[in-house]
Amino acid sequence: MSERGFTLLEVLVAMAIFAVISVLAYGGLMVVLDQRALADEQADAWRELQFAVQLLGRDLQQLQPRPVRDEIGDRYVPAFQSRPGSAYALELTRGGWTNPAGLPRATLQRVAYRVEDGALQRIYWPVLDRTLNTEPVVTRLIEELEGLELRMLDGQGGWHTQWPPPGLAGDGALYTLPRAVEVAVESPRFGRVWRLLETSP
């Protein structure tokens, strides 16, 4: 009995079918990989946003009524300060600055937040009463941010877009702290995200 192999036409047809299936499979694989990369980017951006809000929340929970001298040294800056249009969206004195190395410094820390070049930054200084030569430590928390808005709750239940509130002067302006801070960020990925953060009592 004679054995019959594949004809050239049958081989060509089989190769063509295999090529079509390979192209379809490759295209499907690329779609899956692209979707996975997009999901990873979204997850990273969300973790970045959550970390920034948690860090701000920890700073507010350690809030301390300690004003600081300005860089010139001729006046005091309130313990908590937030003014739209200023260099820092928020500036505060916090406690709980750990010192495992036993350095000769206070456990209080001056911290600020600002949006610069589309990124949310956290800044702190190695001393409370800084001078013009004091170099701050800057950490980028959120790489893509379109805006940051803050509202502060006073002891009478009123909301303010700046702190100290208008009408508060003297020692009251220097030492008075808000009861809570509402933080709203504008993210190109997630839109407007806000959270209410309670300050230390």
Features:
alpha+beta, Pili subunits
Detailed description of the structure:
29% of the residues lie in helices and 28% in strands. With 201 residues, the chain is an alpha+beta fold. The protein has one domain: Pili subunits. The strands form 3 sheets. The chain has a 5-stranded antiparallel β-sheet with strand order 3-4-5-6-7, with helices on one face. The chain has a 4-stranded antiparallel β-sheet with strand order 9-8-10-11, covered by helices on one side. The mean pLDDT is 87.
Side-by-side strand order of the widest sheet: 3-4-5-6-7
Tally of domains? 1
Shape: elongated
The helix-and-strand class reads alpha+beta
The CATH class assignment is Alpha Beta
- Give the C-alpha Rg: 28 Å
CATH level-3 fold name: Pili subunits
Distance from N terminus to C terminus (CA atoms, Å) equals 98 Å
Mind summarizing the main beta sheet? 5 strands, antiparallel
**Helix coverage percent of residues?**
25-40%
In the CATH hierarchy, what is the architecture at level 2?
Roll
Total count of strands: 11
Individual helix count: 2
Portion of residues in beta strands equals 25-35%
Overall average residue pLDDT: 87
Supply the CATH superfamily name: GSPII I/J protein-like
**Topology as a string of helices (H) and strands (E):** HEEEEEEEEEHEE
Low-confidence stretches: none
